[in-house]
Design a protein that fits this description.
homodimer; 451 residues; mainly alpha; MgtE N-terminal fold; CBS-domain; Tetracycline Repressor, domain 2; three-stranded mixed beta sheet; 65% helix; 6% strand; elongated
């Protein structure tokens, strides 16, 4: 039942597109869901995609456009004239999607597209939405919703809903407002189905709605909808008037993006980058972290340089340099990941830095003891130097404790100063802990050697 | 408007709970949303929580229970008798939530709780749901839905919906089935509002629904709902009969968990662990990766040991051991993260391993060249050994190329053999690349030194 894109299908479609046989193309994709066609369109050249769009009816074409990857979408939009963008795509989109499409155009083209719209109300909605800053509820919300006045009867309400339903694809919630458009509550479908026709809305609506403001940040919107299990969230302006609603599908994207951002940071990738991006974008996203690692490596070299004389006397100390460095990095990343994740999903709970530090310290004590014992056993068997064996174990223990505290503190501090704590995981903490670990290792080594 | 838990509030509530003043407690939490009360309950001792549950009406109490963290929830459930669990919690929960709660009980208690349920239909639904394997659509779905027969008229349909709506909190979609319960399509609210009362359902329903089977894995369910922007997904049995529906709020949790799992793997944490888990759970989740790092470190020590004589002649080679090891790890993690993420969100697109490898290779060529040049500049200024300068740069370049190819190949291979590719990121790839890097470094060093 589910569509699966194959190489053969794609080849067949492309040759049909190139020979401009509309009927063949429609027989191939006509029955498919817009999200599936979007997957296909992402594999086509722009010129082929343009032909495909022209064969689809405008409603389907606009749905396809909104489903494709943003980078590719921007290129497709650029390939149409303002009039085409308005007529093929924008007129068939919900206001939030329409605003997203228009937002990528340069200012003068935006105005051209909006001027081409026949539906004045839609044009006004889009202009409204374009004003909100990216990353806020205002930029996420759509204007399509069903609202009823508290003074209406159930009968009046159903009549009005019928009218409004024309412009709304899905009815998530029926909102109840007063004469000044202020949001009062919601009306459940259940109540409408069971109430008598002359009952007043004011008597049957439910209060206590969770809402947000147009300026609420989008990650807060995502947290609200997740916490309260909402399918749609009403958005209010400064006066408490209902101006739009955010649906869960838009928020799923926000949640996915937030999670991916943290993952990328932990993996040493800046920006949002994926495998389909160009080599140049991929390079740009990685090089800064590699250069950071390089600088860390140079510092590491200088630290070891300070102890060159010790190395000459005890050259075997060099053997365990990678072990010490790697373990500091690993422990630091583990501790910081726990904190970053806790901050992201609001699960850190009450209490300040103290309890978290002491818990990480306890975990590190135990892990440090186990690791130091294991390496001591190995060295007592494999190495002929007792001093080296003790040096490695003692410094490993110290490095694990230090790295755990550091990995806990840094993201908490960053978060306190409103810097993204995810910055602290990955290459940054690894690099810093590498250097710290080397210092500890050689200081312990010299102390034991002199003793 | 949104509730914010404070230390003062918590202290006040606890003292009210301890002095058993029901009125005070209700005045504090009575107006709050269940999700907010859940946040509070997570901070209480079990005995305090039990008192709080008893003051809330059963519907609110059950909503609170379903909103608290799973680990804490399990402990709370264990504090009640089977009869209490049935009457306070299960009877007021939707079937999927009820099954989740019961699933954590031992077999004999499960049967006790189910025997205490008054609603026979609910008991049957729960027994049904308990049979599905965790991680499948069957285990995610709920039984509450509104379904109408294709042979009914709109009038009949509304009458039936009224009846069914009693048991359903939210009406997401109205499903249309035939006489054998086979799912045919959906009926939009819009159509019901606009069709005449004697119109037959068969003439107005929409076909082409996206569906899944009871045995569909939950990550596939999440991908389907995300791709097709669904709020509810109907679940069919082997005969195509409608047996349940999955709502988006359950899938948001799946998406969040999947993303967190990848993040944790990349950070060297096994299992699902968060900051509120005990020290022991936290230790167990981390120690395996640390021991892996330890073993990697021992291998690294052995590799360097092979070149002990070279180190005696050129002790400065030790300086750049951390740099080579760290860079190999960083590059490997970057490459594997790109692949793991692409696999997770289905954005890798068409084509086999070839194009991906060649792209990663190009990115690595460029990054390798930049990094090798930078460190060469540094060394030409800071180091007095030309051989060392060349050794570091040449081996760094080789390490970056190697690590990128390795980081790309390993997750793709793991995925091919149905092993979670996220295993490849983090400590595993770092450790392997550490060892590989050291080999390359010392081989290059010896070659240049002998030349």
């Amino acid at each position: 039942m589910q569509f699966q894109l194959t190489r053969e299908f794609l080849d067949q479609l492309r040759s049909s597109l190139q020979s401009s046989s509309e009927q063949e193309v429609i027989s191939l994709v006509g029955e498919l869901h817009a999200a599936d066609i979007a997957e296909i369109v992402e594999e086509l050249e722009i010129e082929e995609a343009k032909i495909l769009y022209s064969y689809l009816d405008a409603e389907k074409a606009s749905e396809v456009l909104i489903n494709i990857d943003e980078d590719i979408r921007d290129k497709h939009i650029a390939a149409f004239t303002s009039k085409q963008i308005a007529e093929i795509f924008i007129e068939n989109l919900e206001s939030d999607d329409a605003a997203d499409v228009i937002a990528v155009l340069p200012q003068h083209e935006r105005e051209e597209v909006i001027a081409c719209l026949e539906d004045q109300e839609q044009a006004e909605d889009i202009v409204d939405l374009l004003n909100f800053q990216e990353g806020t509820a205002g930029a996420l919300m759509g204007k399509e919703l069903v609202e009823v006045n508290e003074n209406w009867s159930v009968k009046q309400c159903i009549r009005e809903m019928r009218k409004q339903a024309e412009n709304v694809d899905h009815i998530y919630t029926i909102y109840v407002v007063d004469d000044h458009e202020k949001l009062l509550g919601r009306l459940s479908l259940k109540k409408i189905l069971t109430a008598t026709a002359d009952k007043k809305i004011a008597d049957i609506y439910e209060t206590g709605l969770i809402t947000c403001k147009t300026y609420t940040p989008s990650d807060e919107v995502a947290n609200l909808m997740e916490k309260y299990d909402l399918v749609a969230l009403p958005v209010l302006d400064e006066l408490g008037r209902l101006v739009g609603r955010i649906t869960i599908d838009d928020v799923v994207d926000v949640i996915r993006e937030e999670a991916e951002k943290d993952y990328q940071m932990a993996s040493g990738l800046s920006d949002t980058v994926d495998s389909s991006d160009s080599i140049w974008v991929n390079t740009r996203a990685r090089l800064p972290w590699l250069v950071l690692g390089l600088i860390g490596g140079i510092f590491g070299a200088r630290v070891i340089g300070l102890y060159e004389e010790d190395l000459k006397i005890m050259p075997q100390m060099a053997f365990f340099i990678p072990l010490i460095a790697a373990m500091g990095g690993n422990v630091g990343v583990q501790s910081s990941a726990i904190i970053v994740q806790g901050l992201a999903n609001n699960s850190l709970g009450m209490g300040g830095i103290g309890p978290k530090l002491s818990k990480e310290f306890s975990v590190a004590l135990f892990n440090g003891f186990v690791c130091a014992s294991l390496i001591l056993c190995y060295n007592l068997i494999a190495s002929d130097s007792l001093v080296l064996s003790y040096t490695v174990s003692i410094s490993l223990f110290a490095v694990i404790l230090f790295a755990a505290l550091f990995g806990t503190l840094v993201p908490l501090l960053l978060n306190k100063y409103k810097i993204d704590p995810a910055l602290a995981t990955g290459p940054f903490i690894t690099t810093v802990n590498d250097i710290l670990g080397l210092f500890i290792y050689f200081i312990v080594g010299r102390m034991l050697y002199l003793a």
